[in-house]
């Protein structure tokens, strides 16, 4: 997740760099739009912006069940 002073471009660059170096996925969380972009290696990102959508998680966290609403209700912004 980015801090408020980081631009989405900078965070996206960091996510893409991480994906090129073995990370399974990256989330870009936009609290203003209540949207989560989920990035994967060599794929188009997925967009999660419906409150009841279950977010994609990496395989090591496969038991985690988290909706868009649950994520944003837990964020302090």
Provide a descriptive summary of the structure in words:
The protein is of the alpha+beta class and 77 residues long. 26% of the residues lie in helices and 17% in strands. The chain is built from two helices and three strands, in the order αβββα. It has helices at 8-20, 68-74; strands spanning 26-30, 35-39, 46-48. It has a three-stranded antiparallel β-sheet, covered by helices on one side. The model has no long low-confidence stretch (mean pLDDT 90).
Short key terms for the protein model shown above:
77 residues, alpha+beta, three-stranded antiparallel β-sheet, 2 helices, globular
Q: What would you say about this model in short?
A:
Helix content is 26%, strand content 17%. The chain has 77 residues and is an alpha+beta fold.
Average pLDDT value?
Answer: 90
Provide the structure class: alpha+beta
Q: Gap between N and C termini, in Å? A: 12 Å
State the helix count: 2
H and E string: HEEEH
Largest sheet: 3 strands, antiparallel
In what order do the strands lie side by side in the largest sheet?
1-2-3
Structural shape? globular
Number of strands: 3
Helix share, percent: 25-40%
Radius of gyration: 12 Å
Low-pLDDT regions? none
**Strand residue percentage:** 15-25%
What is the subunit organization of this protein?
single chain
């Amino acid at each position: 997740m980015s801090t408020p002073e980081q631009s989405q471009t900078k965070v996206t660059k960091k996510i893409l760099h991480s994906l090129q170096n073995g990370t399974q996925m990256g989330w870009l969380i936009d609290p203003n739009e209540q949207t989560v972009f989920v990035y994967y290696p060599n794929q188009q990102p997925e967009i999660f912006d419906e409150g009841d959508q279950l977010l994609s998680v990496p395989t090591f966290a496969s038991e985690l069940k988290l909706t868009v609403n649950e994520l944003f209700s837990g964020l302090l912004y």
